[in-house]
């Protein structure tokens, strides 16, 4: 048993050594969040948030070390596919900018503009076009673009429990389940969590981080950049709620580690099923530290 732990520590050392730039960027991110939290008086919350993510990563790393998943992603034309994914993300962010920064009152907007926006939302934010491109035009199978390895679904549940323990124990005021159920109902809770956020975002993240990592010949850097861009996309939504663009940027930095964690899960298990389950039920609010 002791030899297993020594081998595991050596495994971690090798991974860090092979991904020095990415590891340094993660350290800078963590220190930045802690410094911002200290300034805002939220060090306890931020430390608990980053701590539970780190603990989950170490446990998953150990599990996949003793029971390795040898499957690799099938990527046919990395550069071409990456350009398409980046194009779709760019269009998505343009739509978000129009919806949340340009249009002040969506309900009072001209009907034709609302219909056009909804069509583009369905095609690019949800993202129907990307699914069509990879499944029909590139002839990928569902299991090759994240919908495989369903046996690993159980991984999500201990992580959800750990998130819940941190939320109830340290930041119970951040938990959002009750508010959303009271305001919109249980059905809206499910659609908001899974159909609106988890499935579209994790699907796009998977395609982006795998293709970008291949193009850069650096999986770690591709993973980091993809999650950074995902986090920055939330600035449109956050600034719409507060009209504070600096605050929106800081809030986006706050959710960045969570995006990294979901992308990490997808890469480790070669499936987005665990990430979708955790993301879809992520109303614990542990990432809302700013």
From TrEMBL:
The keyword ATP-binding does not apply. The keyword Transmembrane applies. This is CAAX prenyl protease-like protein. The chain crosses the membrane at residues 21-40, 46-63, 83-103, 115-135, 147-171, 186-208, 220-239, 245-265. InterPro entries: Rce1/LyrA-like_dom. One of its GO terms (biological process) is CAAX-box protein maturation. GO terms for molecular function: endopeptidase activity. It comes from the Bacteria. Keywords: Hydrolase, Membrane, Protease, Transmembrane, Transmembrane helix. Residues 187-282 form the CAAX prenyl protease 2/Lysostaphin resistance protein A-like domain.
